[in-house]
Each structure stands twice: as C-alpha cells, then as structure tokens.
Specification:
The chain has 311 residues and is mainly alpha-helical. It contains eleven helices and three strands, in the order H-E-H-H-E-H-H-H-E-H-H-H-H-H. It has a three-stranded mixed sheet. Helix 4 runs parallel beside helix 8. The radius of gyration is 21 Å and the shape is globular.
Length: 311
C-alpha cells in the first residue's frame, strides 16, 4: 500500500537556494565557477597521484579516493542545483530524486569515513613510524577502504529505504536545491517518526564515530609533535595537521548543524546555507587543503608539467 501511494507524487519541484530574481545569475556564475574549480582540482589530483609512482603510498591512496568521492558527490548535486538558477521550475522526477538522495548520502558518508582513515594513517605515520609499512600495508588499506564504502552504502540504503516507504503530499515543492533527507520529510503526508529516528541514529554514528577517531588521532599526533626536538620538524607537522583539522571541522560542523538538531530550531532556509558548506565548499577546498601545503604534490606537479613541456 505504501509503495503505491508513495509514487502518487511523480515529480518534485526543487525550490533552489533563493527565490530572489536579482541573485539568480550572479549565484549561477558563482556556483558554476566553484564547480569548475572542484572538478579540475579533484580530477587533477586523481590524475597526478595515478601518474606518479612515488605517490603510490597509503596517504595518497586515501587522498586519491577522497578526491574521487568529492568529484562524484559535487557532480551528483551541483549541475541540478545550477538548473534552479536558470529555469523557471526546477523539476526532478520521483525516481531521479531518490537516486540523487541515495548517491549524495553514499558519497557524503563515505567522505566522513575516509577522512577518519586519513587521520588514522597520519597518526601511525607520525606516532609509530617504525611499524608504518606493516600497520598500513596494502591489505590493511584495502580493508579500510572497503569499510569506508561499506558504511557509505549501508547508511545510504537505510535512509533511502525509509524515504521510499513514505507517502508524499500533492504539494511537491521541496524547499532545497537538492533532494536531501529533511526537506523531503517536510513534504510527507505520513508519519516520519521512523525516518527521524533513523536520521538520529545513522547520522549520529556517521558523524560521531569519524569525529571521535579523527580528534583522538590528532590529539595523539599533537602530543607527539610537542616532543619533537627541532622547531622545523614541529612546525612542519603542525601545519599539516592544522589544515586537515580545518577541513574536517568545516565538514562535520556544518553536517551536525544541519542534521543533529530539532527541526523547529533551524528554519530550512538557514539549513540550506549550512549545507552549502558540506556540498559545495568542502569538495572545492579539499584538493587545495590536502595538496597545496604538500611538498610531494608540488614535486609531482613540477615533474608532470616538465614531462609535458619536454615531450
């Protein structure tokens, strides 16, 4: 009965970021620009890590996957979002909406776990360098990656399966620029109690577990850094960690702000602004934060370019 009713709404209309006409074109070009930067930054990093054999280490194995995730999930969201700035009505079909929801959740949850795998990798490299090659062997890295995508798949399936069983009202205007959990729940005619429970449990896990892992890793790293004798070594390790912590705080902070609060406290318009951080800003900043401050990547960049020019 639920499935038949739930498909009674065959399409949704995405309200977009703002309904003010004078902002549509400036925002269109702003987000188009950020999407181009995101695609170039992440694909550039993927290509560079793939081409340079000296970057085939655990740290870059995870960075490769982080860039792949960032590229994929900004592609799931941004092109459809850009449509809302230039079309009168940004319509998305019911299957299209559920597909976008599933892939957005799959990539965003995978991102939170790959960030914790990267923090663990840095912890082993800095705190236990002697056992690093054994502790982060290719088998361990593959298992960690399997866990990352496994958690992404499980979380996305849980949320999407709960969403598909709902019946949506005739008013199919979704107050967001994408099919996200909370704006869709607002449009449901049936009780969303189970869905809200799943959001609290699954999002709590998907933000809680990685956040604890990351902050414990970085706390141990920082205490280890403070014991480094040379000021040069200390400042190098500190600058690497600080950039990672900024990226992680931005990602998890905006995610927690959006999902882990009673909906009455935060109107969806503010929610849309906070979700800009984890959907648009973070995928654009990650390649810059994780690579520009990195000596290996700079060397690889020079090599790649010099190969091109001399060939």
């Amino acid at each position: 009965m639920g499935a038949e009713n739930s498909s009674s709404v065959t399409e949704f209309i995405l309200a977009g970021l703002t309904d003010r006409p004078e902002l549509q074109m400036p925002l269109f070009f702003l987000f188009l620009g950020s999407y181009v930067v995101t695609v170039m930054g992440n694909l550039g990093l993927i290509t560079m890590i793939g081409l340079n054999s000296h970057l085939h280490t655990p740290m870059y194995f995870f960075l490769f996957n982080l860039s792949l995730i960032d590229f994929c999930y900004s592609t799931v969201i941004t092109p459809k979002m850009l449509m809302s700035f230039i079309s009168k009505k940004n319509i998305i079909s019911y299957p299209g909406c559920m597909t976008q929801l599933f892939f957005f959740l799959f990539f965003v949850i995978s991102e939170s776990f790959i960030l914790s795998a990267m923090a663990y990798d840095r912890y082993v490299a800095i705190c236990n360098p002697l056992v690093y090659t054994v502790a982060m062997s290719p088998q361990v890295c593959s298992l960690l990656l399997l866990g990352v995508y496994g958690m992404g798949f499980a979380g996305a399936m849980a949320h999407t399966a709960c969403m598909v069983r709902l019946t949506f009202c005739a008013d199919s205007l979704v107050n967001h620029y994408m099919c996200d959990i909370l704006p869709l729940l607002e449009r449901s005619c049936t009780s969303t109690y189970v869905n809200e429970l799943v959001v609290f449990i699954v999002v709590g896990m998907d933000i809680g577990v990685p956040t604890v892992t990351i902050f414990v890793s970085y706390a141990l790293i920082l205490s280890s850094i403070l014991h480094i004798r040379s000021t040069q070594g200390r400042s190098k390790a500190f600058s690497t960690c600080s950039s990672h912590i900024i990226a992680v705080s931005l990602f998890f902070g905006s995610g927690a702000f959006m999902y882990l609060k009673p909906s009455s406290l935060l109107p969806m318009n503010q929610g849309k602004v906070s979700s800009l951080f984890y959907t648009i800003v973070v995928p654009m900043l990650n390649p810059l934060i994780y690579s520009l401050r990195n000596k290996d990547v700079k060397i690889a960049l020079r090599k790649t370019f010099s190969k091109k020019f001399f060939s």
